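Much of what follows relies on a compact textual record of a protein's fold. A complete example follows; check for yourself that the lines match position by position.
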Amino acid sequence: MAHDEQDGPADRPTGSTRAGPPRRPPGSPGSPGSPGQRTAALFRTAPPGPFRTGFWRSPIRGPWLTSVFGLVLLAGITIEFLTGLFSYAAYNPRLGPVNDQTPGKGILGFYLFTWPTHPYWLYRLNQGVHVTLGVVLVPVLLAKLWSVVPKLFTWPPTRTPAQAIERVSLLLLVGGALFEFATGILNIQLHYIFPGSFYTLHFYGAWVFIAAFAAHVALRLGIMWRALRAIRLITVLRTDTARTEPEPPDSSGLVTSTPSRPTMSRRGALALTGAGALVLMAVTAGQSIGGASRRTALLAPHGRNPGRGPSGFPVNKTAAQVGVTAADIGPAWRLRVHGPAGTRTFTRAELLAMPQHQAALPIACVEGWSADDQQWSGLRLADLAALAGMPHAASVEVQSVQRGGAFSTVLLAANQIRNPLSLLALHVNGADLSADHGFPARVIVPACPGVNNTKWVSDLTFRK
């Protein structure tokens, strides 16, 4: 009868000339007791806790659930990246360093273009989508990270150079995602704590993240597609917690070999994530939509009730916050208009005596909040360009009397000057501008970021 056991030393024929491997003295290189082998053995043995394969035991974790969250993020992050690029382009950074908050862009600025002024609500829509969607995606991002967390604790961390590259790309992907979401959310809540300019860090961080994201999608798209096809969504929605079972084992390493009893079904995980996203939308979107929905915007950095009266709409920075004093905007204030023929100076009374024009325009800020259309009145920038002797000016430098904060000087492009809705506003909603809204004069331009609608204007320099 055959046996599966191997012959031992006692079964060897007498006189056999077989010899075992030569013995090495203990502690010699390559011997079982050498420091090198002891280090290798320790490296092969996973440390206690999350690095052990039996630590992660959720029966719902697997390629299908990960792929569902991944598909949502694929669509959402693509929109986030594009609206982010458009938001940066809206500042017209190609006009010069005055508008450029990210110097040294190099090839990363290849896509920049002159931001249009039509439709007038374009920037409000773009930034509202960018900020609101970014907040809404937070539960999905956290759910996706939960679904793949065993991969982050793989032991040993790397075995081959190819695996090392994959781990570095995973670090850039996860780290980049957390960095972009964290900086963006802190900025819209006006609690930005990172060193350096938000625009610079967020811009370059976005490119690092999207490069890792694109590489990850290229490597995983086929796997994601196969996983989504393996289980029908309707089947998941019909399966309760009691009947939830792990997915079949596969090479992903996400399916546990020692599942615990399910405490939540896959449909429950989807419902919990979706509910979190909807709640965040409900308490965020109102700051961009405006109107009555503003009352629901619990996360609105400027509050849900902007005030009453003609100037009852949000402001980004008050006059006091940027060092504007009563003397700066009092009777001694003058507007200086610079052109090839020299400088012309106007009092506010002289400006009011000129032909006035009206425009119904919103204000939208990079932080995501926006005001509804307000009725502005004042002088067209095109008419002021003509007064300066430059009816076809290529740009205008707008300077404020403010002493603190960014964007005290901005450049506006030719299409922004020529648009008949672009005004040096003196009134809003039939009343004088308030001090916090830019009295005695401010710029208002359609589809323009709020910070480029300069308040407390002192100088307009038209350029070829």
User: Anything to note?
Assistant: Strands lie at 335-339, 342-346, 357-364, 370-380, 395-400, 409-413, 423-428, 431-432, 442-444, 457-463.
